[in-house]
Amino acid sequence: MEQRKTTRRRTLATRVTRVRMVQRKSIGMMAVYEADPAEAGPDSRALVFEWGTMRTRVTEFPDQWQALSDDELAEMRRRTLE
Question: Where are the alpha helices (DSSP H) in the chain?
Answer without folding.
Answer: 37-40, 70-80
